[in-house]
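**Polypeptide and fold**
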Amino acid sequence: MYRGFIHFFAFLEKKYPGQIALNELSRQDILDFIVYCDKAATEVKRKDANPNHFVRTNLFQLKVFLEYLERYEWKEAPTSPVSKLLFPDDIPRQIRRSGVKKN
């Protein structure tokens, strides 16, 4: 479950070297992370790689993490509500093996 954090914090470190402040996250940061995940997913070399699953997993784990910080009012929690940072439509739907999207 924690691999998504590795990608998210690597993204933040690349975007804001030496100054990761979760409480200052913006919607644009989330949109930039989605682009980062899309790019990283296409660079996976494994034969059985599933880019959709990679993006979905990273965004879902990020959402859960940020909601946890918000729910328990940690000082590191983003000042903007998580629902305003990461929209449900940002997370790709799961694709079944038959190729049909699952809700």
Residues 3-102 form one domain. The first strand starts at residue 94 and ends at 95. The chain has a mean pLDDT of 87.
